[in-house]
Amino acid sequence: MTKITVGVDGMMCGMCEAHINDAVRKAFDVKKVTSSHAKKQTVILTEQDIDEQAIRDAISKTGYDVLSVKKEPYEKHGLFSHRK
Global pTM? Predict the structure, then answer.
């Protein structure tokens, strides 16, 4: 799984966060997407790699500015993750 952290400028409230989350869900097959206007970021969890330019395009179409895109491997850390 891949964690993609996108720096986003222009979000002011929860509706802005929902607008970006909806745009990401419509454009890509993702496991989870969350946005925070306070942190100025959107975090995407996905099984398949997503092209950075495609992410920038999908979010930019909503009227927000993409500041950065960072990709890293993601491993779920839960209560029983040590038993693997």
Answer: 0.88
How many whole angstroms separate alpha carbon 36 and alpha carbon 73?
21
User: Tokens representing 2?
Assistant: 């891949």
Task: Report in angstroms the alpha-carbon separations of 43 from 13, 68, 80, 83.
Answer: 16, 12, 23, 27
> Could you tell me the sign of the dihedral formed by the alpha carbons of 3, 18, 38, 11, in that order?
positive
Report whether 29 contacts 48 (CB < 8 A): yes
At 81 the pLDDT is 56
pLDDT of residue 64 exceeding 90: yes
The angle, 0 to 180 degrees and rounded to 10, between the axes of the packed helices 14-27 and 52-60 is 130
Q: How many helices (H) and strands (E) does the chain have?
A: 2, 4
